[in-house]
Write a structure and sequence with these properties.
By secondary structure, the protein is α/β, with parallel strands linked by helices. The chain has 16 helices and 14 strands. The mean pLDDT is about 100. The structure holds D-xylose (XLS) and nickel (II) ion (2 copies).
Length: about 425
């Protein structure tokens, strides 16, 4: 059955096209920086925002007009899957990402949940075979059900810890079954509200134990996907433990987990942590920890995760500079952890949203590639640090000198000359690339 009857496969028509149902920049097979755009970008659909989100907010119930609205149970899950795969096929999206709870109903017991999952996994496998669409990553939802009110692996209740472990075990198994290339841990409710009722030391140790168990189980079943942690500073808890990239890397090192995980950086989480998206990508990259991206956009006037489709080309360019400098993002990709606005309730709005997001990152990729090719910024930065390539700077970098040698050297200095950082000149140059 076809659901988007009036929409055929979205084609690339170029930047002057006025057809809202065409790509202006995303030309999947066009080669940029040595490989096709689709291989650089590895776009993925977020199952939750696209298929299970209903558009509710704290002031009102769902608004989304969806063909499964009247259905329940497995029937609903199957229809969602059908629609999702048609959407991805027509958009030319090669991957999807999912939580266990997105694809199958929870049921009345853990056992029933697992059975529902098995049935849906078989169903989705068929759709994957038919369309050639692959799984970028899977994860578990250990935050919606009220049993997780105090967290999952950081809950004060050991039974909840055990239940969460059972969920992750199963989610990892089905991700492997679906050929998932990564498995994500997003903190959910792993955090706290007040120190008056919280043993942060035990909670963090337990989080470390939980992740070690995941590493062990991964080895046991022979899952070869990359494990990822997705930082977020707040929401739903006031203090989320996985605050930002730097915090997560420190945590991983403390629990000796650094070789088993990389980071899944989300644009909107970066800005909630008062960082830019590119800052978080950069911190991950220079530590060899850049794993994947949740490509969305926040509203800087609002203090919560709005998960909007990305339309800001400036930010996308800055992000793609990091991705290119990382030598690519695979086996990760760009998952649109983004949802259409509550008022964009019609099915076809999903197409406009994904086209906008995909074009934004395609354009960002092209501009970033041009910047790297031309080398203007790279040369500027190289020049700025030239003092470390010879003389005393070279000795500092190679570890040949300590405080005593440096003091002796400093005493010989008559004058210290600095050069301008030229920020405004560089920002103007950045704009020139965008205007081309
Ligand atoms: C929520 C997170 C979530 C993860 C997957 O803020 O972004 O959507 O990406 O659990
Ligand atoms: Ni996310
Ligand atoms: Ni988010």
């Amino acid at each position: 059955m076809e659901f988007f009857k009036n929409i055929s496969k979205i084609k690339y028509e170029g930047k002057d096209s006025t057809n809202p149902l065409a790509f202006k920049f995303y030309d999947a097979d066009k080669v940029v920086a040595g490989k096709p755009m689709r291989e650089h970008l590895r776009f993925a659909m977020s199952y939750w925002h696209t298929l299970t989100g209903e558009g509710s907010d704290p002031f009102g119930t769902g608004t989304m007009d969806r063909p499964w609205n009247e259905l329940t149970g497995m029937e609903k899950s199957k229809l969602r899957a059908e629609v999702g795969f048609e959407l991805m096929s027509k958009l030319g999206i090669d991957y999807f990402c999912f939580h266990d709870l997105d694809i199958a109903p929870e049921g009345n017991s853990l056992k029933e949940k697992q059975e529902n999952l098995d049935e849906m996994v078989a169903y989705i496998e068929e759709l994957m075979k038919k369309t050639g669409i692959k799984c970028l990553w899977g994860t578990t939802n250990a935050f919606t059900n009220s049993r997780f009110m105090h967290g999952a692996s950081t809950s004060p209740n050991a039974d909840v810890f055990a239940y969460a472990a059972a969920q992750v075990k199963k989610a990892m198994e089905i991700t492997m079954k679906l050929g998932g290339e990564n498995y994500v841990f997003w903190g959910g409710r792993e955090g706290y509200e007040t120190l008056l009722n919280t043993n942060t030391e035990l909670e963090l140790d337990n989080l470390g134990r939980f992740l070690q168990m995941a590493v062990d189980y991964k080895a046991k079943i022979g899952f070869t996907g990359q494990l990822l942690i997705e930082p977020k500073p707040k929401e739903p808890t006031k203090h989320q433990y996985d605050f930002d990239a730097a915090t997560v890397m420190g945590f991983l090192r403390k629990y000796n987990l650094q070789d088993h995980f990389k980071l899944n950086i989300e644009a909107n989480h970066a800005t909630l942590a008062m960082h830019t998206f590119e800052h978080e990508l950069n911190m991950s990259r220079i530590n060899g920890m850049l794993g994947s991206i949740d490509a969305n956009q926040g509203d800087l006037l609002l203090g919560w995760d709005t998960d909007q489709f990305p339309t800001n080309i400036y930010d996308a360019t800055a992000a793609m500079l990091e991705v290119l400098r990382n030598g690519g993002i695979a086996p990760g990709g760009l998952n649109f952890d983004s949802k259409v606005r509550r008022g964009s309730f019609e099915l076809e709005d999903l197409f406009y949203a994904y086209i906008a997001g995909m074009d934004t990152f395609a354009r960002g990729l092209m501009i970033a590639d041009e910047m790297i090719q031309e080398g203007f910024f790279d040369n500027f930065v190289k020049e700025r640090y030239a003092s470390y390539e010879a003389g005393i700077g070279k000795k500092i970098v190679s570890g040949e000198v300590g405080f005593e040698e440096l003091e002796a050297y400093a005493l010989t200095l008559e004058e210290i000359k600095n050069t301008s950082g030229r920020q405004e000149m560089l920002e103007a140059r950045f704009n020139q690339y965008l205007y081309k």
